[in-house]
């Protein structure tokens, strides 16, 4: 059941589901575009999450009661629409599975390194949220046999392009930053560049598959060790 909850003086949280599913991210992306198109003049920002949309609004132009009233018919129409098909753009992203934690993850999951790579690369992921850092796309859902809690001690610096896992999610760090996820590999492609339009090639609802490559291909694609 959808909930509309005030989130401070200038924000409204739309909770659209209790848990994500295979179609929710794509449907949420469509809803977000509709809200921007019809209510964009009232909003200052719209932030998607795994199961929610956070709407920041201009307090000089509306309040959460007026905004909720404007949103109600949009949400009713959204709920009445048929469930989305697979949809979303498919991105096939190369990864050299040579991460610092690969052997440790295999041991913790009681798998061989080859099995970890196979399970991780065989899954088609959905972009459920983008945040933490510019272009950091949270991808789910990771195979249950690879599910691990975050590292007890986060790293102070994770190299840009690092492919990592935590809980039931996977992601690539688009910039060098601190991080507490387990590192499985490296992607040679930049996943955030302010000179591009859009800066991040991944969008909410897109699909991602990882293609295992070797060190030679990684270097040929522009990767740095």
From TrEMBL:
Presence of the UniProt keyword Nucleotide-binding in the record: yes
UniProt keyword annotations, A-Z: ATP-binding, Hydrolase, Nucleotide-binding
InterPro entries xrefs: CT_C_D, Cyclophilin-like_dom_sf, PxpB
Gene3D superfamilies reported in the protein's UniProt record: 3.30.1360.40, Cyclophilin-like
MF (Gene Ontology): hydrolase activity
Carboxyltransferase domain sequence ranges: 2-202
Name of the protein in its database record: Allophanate hydrolase
């Amino acid at each position: 059941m959808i909930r509309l909850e005030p989130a401070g003086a200038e924000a409204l949280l739309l909770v659209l589901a209790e848990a994500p599913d295979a179609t929710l991210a794509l449907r949420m992306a469509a809803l977000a575009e509709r809200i921007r198109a019809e209510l964009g003049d009232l909003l200052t920002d719209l932030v998607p999450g795994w199961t929610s949309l956070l709407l920041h609004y201009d307090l000089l132009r509306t309040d959460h009661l007026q905004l909720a009233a404007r949103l109600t018919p949009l949400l009713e129409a959204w709920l009445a629409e048929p469930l989305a098909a697979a949809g979303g753009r498919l991105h096939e992203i190369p990864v050299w599975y040579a991460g610092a934690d690969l052997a440790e993850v295999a041991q913790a999951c009681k798998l061989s390194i080859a099995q970890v790579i196979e399970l991780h690369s065989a899954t088609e992921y959905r972009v459920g949220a983008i945040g933490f850092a510019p272009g950091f796309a949270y991808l789910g859902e990771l195979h249950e046999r690879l599910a691990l809690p975050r590292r007890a001690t986060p790293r102070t610096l994770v190299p840009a392009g690092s492919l990592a896992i935590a809980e039931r999610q996977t992601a690539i760090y688009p910039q060098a930053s601190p991080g507490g996820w387990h590192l499985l590999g490296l992607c040679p492609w930049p996943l955030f560049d302010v000179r591009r339009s859009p800066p991040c090639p991944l969008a909410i609802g897109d699909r991602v598959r990882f293609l295992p490559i070797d060190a030679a291909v990684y270097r040929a694609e522009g990767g740095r060790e």
